[in-house]
Write a structure and sequence with these properties.
The chain is 57% helix and 10% strand. The chain is α/β, with parallel strands linked by helices and 303 residues long. The chain folds into two domains: 2-147, no CATH class; 163-297, P-loop containing nucleotide triphosphate hydrolases (Rossmann fold, 3-Layer(aba) Sandwich), CATH 3.40.50. Pfam families: NB-ARC.
């Protein structure tokens, strides 16, 4: 009697679920497939997941190549797609476990059609989501990656000769690490190794992101004026000016752009003329903003 009641309850549940789905957009044949061929429906989903995983690997490989060779980062759209793929992979793990736990009820005498139908509907819904991820996996070049400005440029290694050069390098490094010092100047006649010293410092700083968010290198010259210097700095941070912009406008745009970049070290090599930071557009170095200015020059008056 108890078994008969349990069977009747199961049948009633099947009819209720079946009718509910038939009244929706699902077709009767789809519901029947869940009952008659549950393994086939699951296999279709697994095949689609296998293809989705392969697409995921292809996208990740392309992202790796773009990062290594071109310094490009994935777009927000691609990041979201990868996150959704990972979520679906986690859902599949839970679904497989649920299917394994789907034993026959009534001591194996009566297949659990209610749970089979319910799981079948769940598989179908997930299949649609997987197909949508597959449809959205064909990214164009413009939607796959985006150019992210670099932190600076690294120079070929140089060998410092002599204790004097090494001593200057160590003292300069100490000044850069001192929060109370915002502007450092190295002066001396041409050819004594000033540029080699700051190249070593530049490369070392780029390998230690915790110190500066950006290291900006600009090479000056004897005929360099304020406008040219501003444009050189702008080029290094991916900023462009209009031809009609004044010195004040360029300084304002530089200031805003550099503030957005966080802790910046501006290195100006071989500077011949002194400029105020305000006119240049570089933030006044403070403990709070973490910005610093490092220059080399042939004249102590520039420092």
């Amino acid at each position: 009697m108890d078994k008969a009641m349990e069977i009747a309850g199961t049948i009633a549940s099947i009819v209720q679920l079946f009718c509910g789905h038939c009244c929706s957009n699902d077709s009767i044949s789809e519901q029947c497939s869940h009952l008659r061929k549950p393994k086939k429906v699951l296999q279709i989903l697994e095949d689609k997941m296998e293809l989705l995983t392969a697409r995921e690997e292809d996208v990740k490989q392309k992202l790796h190549v773009e990062k290594v060779w071109n310094g490009m980062d994935p777009t927000a759209e691609v990041k979201l797609w990868l996150e959704n793929v990972q979520k679906m992979k986690n859902i599949m793990i839970s679904l497989k476990k649920e299917i394994q736990d789907n034993k026959s009820c009534l001591c194996g005498c009566f297949p659990n059609y209610y749970r089979r139908l319910k799981l079948g509907n769940s598989v179908t819904k997930k299949m649609r989501k997987v197909q949508k991820l597959l449809d959205n996996s064909k990214f164009s070049e413009s939607s796959l990656v985006i150019m992210v400005p670099g932190r600076g440029k690294t120079f070929p290694g140089t060998t410092l000769v002599g204790d004097t050069a090494k001593g200057i390098l160590l003292r300069t490094w100490e000044y850069l690490m001192d929060e109370d010092i915002g502007i450092i100047g190295i002066y001396g006649m041409g050819g004594v190794g000033k540029t080699s010293i700051i190249k070593e410092i530049n490369n070392e700083l780029l390998s230690k992101k915790a110190i500066f968010d950006n290291v900006i290198w600009v090479t000056a010259s004897k005929d360099l004026d304020l406008e040219k210097l501003q444009k050189h700095i702008a080029k290094e941070i991916g900023l462009s000016f209009h031809d009609e912009d004044s010195d004040i406008t360029r300084a304002s745009e530089l200031f805003e752009a550099l503030q957005r970049r966080g802790r910046c070290l501006l290195i100006i090599d071989d500077l011949w003329e002194a400029y105020s930071l305000e006119n240049l557009g570089f933030p006044n170095p403070t403990k709070e903003n973490g910005c610093k200015l490092l220059i080399t020059t042939r004249s102590s008056s520039v420092c």
